[in-house]
Specification:
The chain is mainly alpha-helical. It has 6 helices and 2 strands.
Amino acid sequence: MSRKIDRNEIQLLARFRSEIRRFLQFSEQAAAAAGLQPQQHQLMLQIAGAPDDTLVTISHIAEMMGLRHHTVVELSKRCELAGLVRRSSDQNDRRYVVLELTPRARRLFACSPRPMLDSCASWPLV
């Protein structure tokens, strides 16, 4: 049985949604300032932010970004051509494509997370 949502909860959801949108706008602007497309930046963020024990594969990124497998394949190929991502076959199972950031991508990415993290400081916690 579901309960009714009260006005305070609706306001909290509305503020949270607004903060998400502001963050996305800020993120898109930061990506553009670094000469990146927003999806390139998002891919780099997921690769850089993967837990240490995670094999960063196309499938992992597709799940984390909420994209279809073939979409991530194409995105990762474009990022590889741009010198941002290195694609390689997994040593244990060659069916898996493993993604890692290039030194160039690490340099570009190193400058962007701090302002983004700072912009999250005002997020209401549910």
